[in-house]
Amino acid sequence: MYENLEKLWIFGDVSGKYKCLSKFYEIISFISHKHDADFDAKKNFAKISKAVKYMEEHIFDCNLKVGKLPLMCNMSDTYFRKIFRANYGLNPAEYISQKRLARAKHIILSGDYDSIAEVAHLSGFDDPLYFSRVFKTMYKVSPSDYNSID
Predict the structure, then answer these.
(1) Residue 103 contacts by C-beta under 8 Å, 6 or more apart in sequence?
(2) What is the DSSP string of 17-74?
(3) What are phi and psi of 91, to 5 degrees?
(4) Which of 16, 24, 111, 136, CA to CA, is 20 to 30 A from 43?
């Protein structure tokens, strides 16, 4: 894009220079708008901070339900997820799942567990079969085979 603008500026006629200026202002406008959107997302984070704090404190609790988080902030699920995604890059369910799977991986590698069901429960999954399926999707190997990988 820069090279095209440069050629148009150097080799173009007067109208080409105006087109360059127009594109330049369009880029400046885009950057300015992006900055405003990022600022708004960070400003709006205060609206969900109570729920995020609760989520972080209970992230490995099997009874944590994502649907309750927006209710704690008196907002719609869609708006909550929009603010959350703007700040974390993931929706709340994905964020929780990644944190839980990382903990499960740590537990498996430590060898400090008796069964995969125990790993699932300690990581916040109440269903060992679902946990195994999600773990295998994320790490491309079942939880029971994970610690035997070289």
Answers:
(1) 60, 122, 123, 124
(2) HHHHHHHHHHHHHHHHHHHHHHHHHHHHHHHHHHHHHHHHHTTT-TT--TTHHHHHTT
(3) -80, 165
(4) 24
Per-residue pLDDT at 150: 44
Instruction: Tell me the torsion sign for CA atoms 35, 38, 39, 40.
Output: positive
d(CA 106, CA 98): 12
Q: How far is CA 81 from the centre of its chain?
A: 10
How does pLDDT run across 58-105, given as a tens digit for each residue? 999 999 999 999 999 999 999 899 899 988 889 999 999 999 999 999
DSSP for 64-79 reads --TTHHHHHTTS-HHH
The sign one gets for the Cα dihedral 22, 23, 28, 32 is positive
- The residues, ordered by sequence, that sit 6+ positions from 23 with a Cβ below 8 Å of its Cβ are 1, 5
